[in-house]
Structures are given as structure tokens and as C-alpha cells.
User: Fold these one by one.
Assistant:
Number 1:
Amino acid sequence: MPVTYENIATTTLGSTQTTVTFSSIPGTYTDLVLVISGTVSTNQNYALRFNGDTGSNYSDTNLFGDGSSALSNRRSNQTVAYIGVSGTNPSPTISNIMNYANTTTNKTIISRSGYATGTAAQVESRVALWRSTAAITSIEVSQSSMLSGTTLTLYGIKAA
Amino acid sequence: MIGNILGGTMGKVAPSGDFESIATVSVTSSQAAIEFTSIPSTYQHLQVRFIGRTTSTGTGSELVYFRANGVSSNTSYTRHDLLGNGSTVYAQGTGSGNSAATFYPDGAVNNGATANTFAANIVDILDYKDTNKNKTVRILHGADMNGSGVVGLTSMLFLSTSAITSLYFAPVGTNWNTYTHAALYGIKG
């Protein structure tokens, strides 16, 4: 049976970084899954940019709870797509980039994330859109301060 | 920025067989439903991953019917949702005996919405073959259309201890559009 869920690339940061880029992504999978297990110095969103597109072609809608309130926000016509929250304690983000190699559809990304510190916490689901029918060949992940030890892994899922 | 990844660093290849592709449906012309039948009982859990767009001229997102084993009776399902539409959060639910228990919201984008845009759905069914348990279905779903859209978490209960052998997804009152794509995966325990 061919491998269906495959680790394409992974990196563990050895120092604080603001950007990590996955490039030369093969077009042989159906979906991509980006898994970030990270710690940051400032609780801000992870952001994605595809194929180096710096245009205002990204948007997203989220749903989150912070322990006392449930809220939903939207961003439109942005230069990056947010995928999830990060925290000063190790926090997970799992982002599904659906049908990334399809050249007839815009790209929808659906994600879950969360963090908890001694004084704050947030759990979130978010859907994002990259308005481009181009196949995704590179992903730039950015956050203001991804600390050493943060691990970013890109998986490919291949349908039959 | 650190050096590009993938230029020379390949990750490990995972052992084969634990997460397997069972079947795929790619819509090439308008069709009423996506169905997976004759699902083998050799896995522990199932996952369906799909993107959906309808043929409706509506401009928003669409409800999607879910059925297991061909059961359409609303007495066999319950459903709860947590949804966010960019400004408001909705928590809603319905018990068995209500028609709303047979579908979930915002699993598809209608054809009058932002061009080339599809809703995303990740459907998890744990212990699908266990004949001692009713089946819980968890769905992460949503669509952003650059100025509108919804993201949601849905939990559905299929009130049956039968092993699941078929799955059915259909937009309510309309058809799936071309390029709608669904894949069924089995996860071994």
C-alpha cells in the first residue's frame, strides 16, 4: 500500500525566527497538513503566505474562546492568511490546506489552534482563503517571534 | 529567515498502512450526492476530507445532509454546532425527530458566491465498526469568501450500533458542482 500520510519536511528552530519557508513543494498530494508545535515570545497569530504572493489576496474567519467569552472575527483583503494563535507555552496549530495542487480552485485552509499560559488561554478554529487558482509550491510561515525549539512539519496526504 | 526547507532536507517517510486512502470522489458534472459504499471493516476510525461547492445560484454557504448506512430518518440523528460568522457566535443543537438533525450547516459554498471558492470539511468518525456503540461524527467545516463566511464545529450522533458501511453527503436542495472533491481514509488502531 503506498504511503498516504507522508512527512514532506520538518524543521526545529535553533534560534528565534520570524519566518520559515517550505519551498519546492511537490504537487503529488491531495492535501497538505502543517503542524506547528511552538513557543513564542508574543501571543500573536501564525500567518501564511503562498507562492510569494504579497497581494491583498487573503482573508479569514475565526471562532475562538478565551475562557470567558466566545467570539468571531473576520479579516478581508489581507496580505497574509492567519491560521491560528500561539502562546508563550508550547502550543499546537494544525492547519489543513485543502486540494493545494488544484489549478481550478481557490485555496481553502482550515485550522485549529490553542494556547494556555498561567494567566490567559485561547482555543480557536479558523477558515482562510487564498484567492488564487495556482498550485501551491511554497508556504511562508511567519510570526513575530518563534522561539528556539519550535517545530514546524509539513505533511502530504494522498487520496486514492 | 532561515534557509528554505525542502531544497535539500527531506523529512522521514512514515511507515505505510496506518492512514490509508480508501476511495475518492471527484465531481465532473453536477451530481446530487457524494457516496462511499462498501466501506471495509479493517480500520479503527474513518476520516472524510472534502471541498464542496454547489450548483445553486445562492451567494452564501449551504447545508449538507449526512447519512450513514443509507439511513435518512431524523429519528436516527442528533446534532450540535458551534459557529462563527465573523461577528457573531452561534451555539445550536437539535435532538432526534427533527429534520435539522440530518444535516449540518456551512459544508458547501453556493455557486453565486466568490468564484472558484469551496468549503472545507474534515469529518472524523471514531470506532465506526464497533457494534457496541452509537457513532459520534465530528466535523470541522467552513468557508471564507472574502467578506463573508462561517467556520464551525459540528458534532452529530448516529443512533445506531451497526457498523458503518456507507457514507453519504449531499447539499440540501441542490447539487454538488464540478471540482467538488472528497476522499475517504481509514485509520488503523
Note: Chain A touches chain B through 61 residues (CB under 8 Å).
Number 2:
Amino acid sequence: MPSDDQYVHSCLNNHPEAFRHLVERYQTPLVRCLHSRLGDMDRAEEAAQETFVRAYLTLGKLRKPEAFFSWLFGIADRVVKETSRAARRFRTADCDDMESPARPDDSIDRASPLADAIDQLPDVYRQVIVLRFHGEQSCAEIGRTLGVPVGTVTKRLSRAYGLLRERLRLGDLRREGEV
Amino acid sequence: MNCHECREEFAGYLEGLLEPALQSEVESHLANCAACATEMDEVRTLVAQLTRETANLPRISIETAVQDRILHEQTLELRRLRMRRRIRLLGISGAMATAIALFFIGNLWLTQPAAAEKAAAEVLAQGAEAVPKPSAVHIAAKMRTIAHDNFSMIGADYDFVPVEIWKEFGDKPKWRVEKPGRVAVVDGASTMMLIRPDHVVKFPGASRAAFDTGWLLALADVQDMITHELRAAQARGWDLKLTHETTGAGAKKLLVTVEAKSGLPADDYLKNKFFEDSDMRRVYRFDAETKRLEGFDAYLRQPGGDVLILSIERIEYDQLIDPTVFTLKLPEKAKLYKEPERLSDNEKYEKMTPEQAAQAFFDACGREDWKEVEKFYSPIDENFKLGMGGVQVLHLGVPFQSKAYVGIEGKGWFIPYEIKFKSGTVRRFNLAMRSDNPANRYIVDGGLSCEQPLTRLPENEKYEKMTAGEAVRAFFDACTKKDWDEVQKFSVKPLDDRDKEYLGGIQQLIDVGEPFQKGLYPGWYVPYEIRIVVKQEVVARNDNPAKRYIVYMTPQSAPDAKQLADVKTLPDNEKYESMTPKEAVQAFFDACVKKDWVEAQKFVRASEPIETLQKEMESPRITDVHVGEVSQTKEPGCWDVSVEISVTKKFNLAIRNDNSAKRWVWDGGL
């Protein structure tokens, strides 16, 4: 199975149809990731479509094809932020009509603490978590996708678990007011 | 194994992927290290949480949506690029050309095209690129249609009629689409159509397309046409095929075939009756070297085999078009179509169902209540009154709709009818009615098959008894003798000077074949072969650097620099330079008679391919040409030359006798 950078090179060398494989590979994990952040499947799909379209149209600007995943999810992050800003503007307009004073609306970006923690992982760890749980890929499949041995995949997963545990623990402490 | 090493293997351990030896080491460490054991429990909880949060989510499939959005974005970008005039179509760089080619190819990425399909798409893309946005286009084509009917109407059983399109691009586009019975014009300020002889539709403002000319005008905009074709092919899954061809003269051509599907169900009433609603095989012919579109053929898919329905015979880019082409001289007593207005009792008509409206219309015809008829159909003339007066409704069927006729908010219907004319002739067809007008009431939009009114002659019985073949012989005999009283007996409409000029050119009836019937046509087709002399004015111009006469079959304005450069100085130029206009025109036609196309090409623009010239001049077969008077025009170096071209014509005459006098009348095919 070709790796991400092989598909990217193919796209940029007169075979743009190769982009389809990248969509197939990342559509599920991307949409589910976005769902966990946006809390709404329709919005998640919309944001994912926008992410892929932007990726296709600017593929020539990707300097490191092997970093396609990080780059794609980076675009997704920007799309989510833009979506949130747009939603905030809308809600502000609504709130003007309300009698009660407007409150800061922290429910727009309804990411769970876990989703938030995943988003904050370094790309190399975020990628394996997303592919394993959002993409439902086995470790062997992830290895083929990334072009690395299975052992490397499991070690990255282990480190990702450790980092997530740490961030979640930190998050718990903040909520309890101890930090 | 230390704690760090153990925790590195947590994921492998939970996935069951560790080698037995390593698994044992991890288990041993966990049994002896409380901290790692606690950490392992927490990781287990985390993994369970991760699994829980992503379980039961649906499978995602957004490829199609992504594809559609990419297509949309690229189309917008292409338009923006064109508008910024950065492209070689108007001046593009090689890199951008590649990008555009990629755009077209990219459109097919989700359907995993075969290499051949991709190659075909590439040729189409190059074809779109090869034509710089022209200032003007002129297309001469032939199409199987009814001369006076809708511009979009086609039929495998109809004769070919000539169709011409002129389009001038710019801030105020102008265009003209014409076939023998109907012409539509935009002069930059208004939009008009004349249905010959005297029905006129006119409205203010310049339309991009009107009166169902859209697809014909699209032929004149090659870039848009090909772009649209590629997008449709991709979006609707049409097949593309590329083939290579070498002509007799050694020129290489590229043919791209598009298998276009209408998308209408097989039993849809309008399927294959109008260009846009038909299953077609469309063939684009490009010059392999220049990549320019040279020809286009459209074939209607039929169970018995594909039928050529439209063929472009000539495409001219950037020719100066005589400004009068974009004007329309209206007949003196033109009958102007008016949009239905609200009547004082409009509510009564608004409430009518399509069937009730059809019944009311036919009943009014039967009573000869023409004021009432005009509420459903206008304008009406004496022929209509003669044909429809006294009609009797035998039966009206259940109204039905077509997917191709409901775009107007479901306000279009077909009503099956069976009516009996005064003469006793019974006609069955489907009346088209629509209510999408300001008055919101049903009006007749088509499907009206009037009886042709014909006076019974004193000797009518003699003509009634004729077979179809006998009638055709009698008709042509009368033409060769120029016996117009006799010819009139085979014509519904009064013969005018144009008819007499054309029919008067028939010199000899060579042969009449066996009559046959085909399709839904109520009459007969009779094969014939005649020798006919056609009188025509051609133009000869030598206002070019080579100073030799170029022959034009239609009036031409003074050539621009590019057209002048097109006329090369020949090795034996002196011979051609010394010819008079008359000698040049005679030499041109003599070469055509001898089928010496290389010689004939010396009298046309160098860029006109020999194959196009041959196609244009070979049929009907020219047997002789007599060059007559020559007169100089106001433009220096430009001469009008009268010619009489003798041709042998083989075709099928359409005749029918379903009229009040039951006589055979000529109905087309000349």
C-alpha cells in the first residue's frame, strides 16, 4: 500500500486522481476527529469537505509530502477555528435580542477534554491515535500507511497514551482548582 | 526491564502484538511494580474511553461531496483566470496551461478513468485551450430538424436542414441563429425571433440565449462547450474515447467521442426529441497539430443504429461579420406574439386543469370562436382558421408530464388528443400546454397538428388517384416546364418568386425511386435524382499581398491582417495573379467539378483544410458551372460574380395527402 508521500508525489506528477486515496484514507478519522471537536456530525462533515478541498487546491505548497497527515489536520484546525468564529458572530447577534445579559458562550467549541487533549498532542502521536481510534485502523495497517514497522507504531501509541494521561490528569486538577 | 521500557510496550501488550518473550517480561514487571501496574490500569481506562467515544459512529463517505466542491472551486478559478486574461487562451504561460489541463484531468479523479479516457479528456482540454477567445465565430452546420419548428427539435426521421450561427463576442454580444423557417437575433439591445413568414416574438434586452438556441450558441463558444462537456461527462459518468485518424491528404486528426446520456427515463415523452434531452454520441474532431476544433458530429442513439443528427460543416474564427447579419428585417404585416395578459375573467381560466383548457381550446376552434381561441393560442392567421375551423374533439386522454418539460415549476403538461377536421381526417397527437406566464393560465405551446387547408380542384379526382410516385413525377415534370399553375397543385402555400426561382432551376428529372414510409411521418418519402441549376452570387477578392483572387461563397468584409496573411504567395503566383475575377471563379469551380481539391484550395484561404473544402463542395455533385456577370463593389479589389451551378441532386421528397382535398402535396426534401 502506497504511503501518503507516494500519493502526494503521484498527484503532483500528473495523476491528481491519486488524491482520492488520501480522501479514502483520512475521511473517517478526520470527520470523527472534527465531530469530537464540533459536537455535530453535519458540521464535522462540512468541515472535513472544506479541509480536503483546501488540501487539494494547495497541494503544491506542501513542502514535506511525508507530513501530509499533519498538514491536513493543520488545515482542519484552521477550518474549525473559522467555523467557531463564524458561529460566535451569529450567536452574538442573537444574544443582542435577549433580555438577559449575554454570557461568554463556551459551548460553541464543544470539544471533550479527551478530544482537546488529542488535539494538543505532537503530530507524530496525534496521527497514530487518530488512525487507530477514529480511523479504526489496526497497528499493522497504520504501519503500512506511515511506512514504519509495527513495533514503531505500538511504541508511538504507548507514548501517546502516556501524554494523554498526563494532560487529562492536568485538566482534572485545573477543574478542581488545585493548579 | 525498567519502568520506561515497560511503559513503551503498553500499547503492544494491550493489542496482543508482543513476541511471547517480551510479553512475559512485561507481565513480570507489572507484577512487581505497583506504579507501572497503576499506570497500566489507567491506560486501559483511557483506551476504553477512546474506544467508547469512537464506537457507533457511522462509516464516513464524503468523496463525492469533496469531488463536487473541487469541481466547483476549479470552475470558479478558471473563470477568474479568464477574466484576468492571464491565460494563453488569451495569453497563458506553459505552467498555467498544464494546470488547466490538470484541471480537466483532475475532474475525472474519483472515477478512476482508464488511460484512454484520460487521454481523451486531455485532447478536449487542449482543444479548449487551442482556440483563443475569438472576437467572432461563424458556424455552418446541417441538422435533422423541422425547418420552421423549435431550434432544439431533432428527429432521426427528419431531413437535414442547414443551420447557421453567427456570434460576436465583446461587451455587448450579438448573435444570430438561423434555419430556413426560423431565425433568432440579438442585436445588442433586443432579442427577436421570426417564424417565417410572419410570426414575430420580440422583447427588450440582449439575451445570452433565447428560444431554445442555447445549445446551438454553445457550439460557437468552444471553450465553454468543451468545459461543460467535460464536467457533464465526469459528473454523470459518460464514457470518453480517443481515436486517431489520418486523412487522404496525410493530415493527422484526433477524434474524441463522448457518449452523452440525457438522464431521462426510456419512456419519457420528450426523450430524444430535443437536443438537450437526447442520448447521443458526440464526436469532436481536432487537428492533431494545432489542436483546434475543426468539426463536430452528433449522432442520436437509436435501437436500430445511431443516426447522424447534426454535423458542423464549417467553423470560422475571427472573421469580420457583416453588421447586417445582426439585424432582422421584419415583414410588413408581422404578427407579434404577446405574453398572455390577465383577462377580466382570468380566474375562470386560472382554475382550469390542463385537460379542461385543451377541451376549451378545441371547442372554441370547433365553434370558430377565434376571440376565445386567442386566449389559448395566438397569433392566429387565415391558414390556422381554415385548418382548425370546425374541428371536433373525439377524445382527450389523461394529461402527462415529461421530466424535460417540468422545469417550469411543473406547469407544463401534454394532453393526448384525437380530433376530427371538417374534411373528416382524424388526427392523434399530444398537445403541449403551459401556465408559467403572468396570467397564470394554460396556453398552447406545441403539439398542434393542423390540417392543411387545400381547395378541391375541378379535376381533383385525377390527383386523388395518383400514387405517391406518380405525384412526384408529375410535380418535377411541371417544374422542368416551369408550369407554375400545375406546380401549385402540389403545394399548400402559394408559390412565391423565391420558390419559382429555385424550382425553375430544375432542368431534368433523372430518376424516381420506390416510395417508403418512415417513423411517425404521416406521408411518404420518394427518392429522386434531378439535375438542377442553382443561381448564386459569389465574391472574389484579391485585396491580399499575393494579389490573387480568393473566392467566397457568401459576402465578406475586408479581411483583417491575420486573414491577409493567410493568403500565401504561390510558386506559380503570376499565373493566378493575372486571372480576372471571372477566370478565377471559373477556375475554382472547374477544379471542384474535377475534384481537384489541391487546385481548388488555391482559391480559398490557406487555413481552410482541404477536407473541409471537399466536404462542402462535394455534395451535391457539381456537374457544370457557368460564370456570368461580374461587377465591382465599392470596396477596392472586391467583385460580385454571378454563377449558375449545375448539380445532380439525389434525395428524398416528402409528400403527404392528409389534407382536405386529399391531394399529394410537397412537404420537404428539396
Note: The interface with chain A takes residues 7-12, 15, 17, 39, 42-43, 46-47, 49-51, 53-54, 57-63, 65-66, 69-70, 73-74, 102, 105-106, 108-110, 112-113 of chain B (CB under 8 Å).
